[in-house]
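Thread: quick sanity check before group meeting

JM: Hey all, I'm pulling together slides for Thursday and realized we never actually wrote out the predicted structure for the chain we discussed last week. Dropping the sequence here so it's in one place. If anyone has concerns about the input, flag it before I start.
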Amino acid sequence: MSEKKEHGALYLVGTPIGNLKDISFRALEVLRQVNLIAAEDTRHTRKLLSHYDIHTPLTSFHEHNEKKKAPSLIRKLKNGQSIALVSDAGMPGISDPGFYLVKLAVENNLKIVAIPGPCALILALVVSGFSTESFVFEGFLGRTSKERRKKLTKLINEERTIILYEAPHRISKLLPQIREILGDRHIVIGREMTKRFEEIIRGRISEVEKIFKDKKPRGEFTLVIEGKQALDTPEDSVRIKRKDESIYCNRTSR
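JM (edit): ok, ran it. Output follows.
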């Protein structure tokens, strides 16, 4: 961490998306050694730090204060302090705060170091059985039906595998829209990935819709949809659950 003597470095640290064991030795070392950790939710990050006996100071950095807070973090970096940026789960900047701070750091010629960690979109993609040669990530399509419809319409002729995130209270509204606009394609949904009640749901979109009519959707969802004219298809309607005795947390998987 010798860069403290001049300009500090901004570390983008990947954190667990569920299972607290899914963090690297390098990430833990950086979290211990930096001067400050900028966290999406300090209460949540404090639980992770407490588990690993890390006592680095925390400051909040989230979507509602990032533009106001970023300049002060840049000043700290210029003054020689090193800062770790973390989100509640996964890699910061992936459907989470981070992009704006990184952009400012680049503009100020500051050192940026990425510390790799779990990412829900990659985990869901590799277990999907769909093509991993090329894919497109669209994140959250939007809160309103109009927003979702507009983005889905642009994906009608997309031949790459499509990956989305969605909240539990909107998943039952999103699935019929996907089927209506993209057709009744094969879909794989990862729910609560790496957590205690992780579930992988496979089938046609119409089949998955029926599943959520029978039980209330809970947890965070990653959707993987086959691209148009996909050559390979997974087995239909296979549902896989996995439980183990590891350590878990219950936050958004990103």
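AS: nice. The two ends are 28 Å apart (CA to CA). Confidence is low (pLDDT under 50) at residues 231-253.
JM: adding both to the slides.
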